[in-house]
Amino acid sequence: MDPPPHTCAMCASEAALQREAANELHAPPVLRMVPAIAFACLLLVVGLLLPVARAANPIGSITEVTITANAIGPKSDACDTYVLTREQVRAFFHKAILISGSQQHDFFMLGSCYAQGTVKTRYDTWKWEIRSLGTATITATNGDTFRLADPGQESSLEDEGREP
Q1: What is the pLDDT of residues 78-133, one digit of tens each?
Q2: Confidence (pLDDT) at 58
Q3: 44 located within any domain
Q4: Domain-terminating residue out of 17, 34, 54
Q5: What is the CA 145 to chain-centroid distance, rounded?
Q6: Which of 7, 96, 119, 129 has the fewest Cβ atoms within 10 Å of its own Cβ atom?
Q7: Residue range 41-61: average pLDDT?
Q8: 49 and 70 co-located in one domain
Q9: Which are the contacts of 64, defined by CB distance < 8 A and separation ≥ 6?
Q10: Could you tell me the residue range of the domain that residue 86 belongs to?
Q11: Same domain, yes or no, for 77 and 36?
């Protein structure tokens, strides 16, 4: 007489894994390649998007930062303490987005303190003015001026005037 079959959970799961492996071996070669193809596609997408994410700067990669003036603005607003470093200027441009005049009006506050300088990129030397509440202007050598803002400094006035 044969002993009853062994039915513990560990043996049952091991048997299921063996059946799954056997089924994979008998699958057509094309189906066995699906995980490898999916992984290759993922690597391709990441490889294409990574340089874009790194250079997500409205004026391109900055090669040089010059600060020509700091602490500009009324002393009553403590503007003498608004002093930017080159690293802070680079960080601002790295996260800055291009905005319109109406977007600046509707979503951002205009700081009274500011600093000025230039940044060089592959494409131009830009004059900049960065304000204390996260907005800026950049001007190309041909005179074109653009507005920028740090999205982290957005300050919608939508709730202003409403009672809590």
Answers
A1: 999 999 999 999 999 999 999 999 999 999 999 999 999 999 999 999 999 999 99
A2: 80
A3: yes
A4: 54
A5: 23
A6: 7
A7: 56
A8: no
A9: 118, 119, 120
A10: 62-153
A11: no
* Per-residue three-class SS string for 69-109: EEEECCHHHCHHHCCCCHHHHHHHHHHCEEECHHHHHHHCC
Query: What is the secondary structure of the chain as a DSSP string?
Result: -PPPPP--HHHHHHHHHHHHHHHHHTS-HHHHTHHHHHHHHHHHHHHHHHHHHHT--TT--EEEEEEEEEEES-GGGTGGG----HHHHHHHHHH-EEE-HHHHHHH----S-EEEEEEEESS-EEEEEEETTSEEEEE-TTS-EEEEE-GGG----TTTT---
147 and 69 fall within a common domain: yes
Inside any domain, residue 163: no
Distance CA 125, CA 130 (A): 16
What global pTM score does this model have? 0.63
The pLDDT assigned to 53 comes to 42
Q: Sign of dihedral through CA atoms 145, 149, 155, 158? A: positive
**pLDDT-above-90 percentage for the chain:** 57
Give a yes or no: residue 29 inside a domain: yes
In the predicted model, is pLDDT for residue 154 greater than 60?
Answer: yes
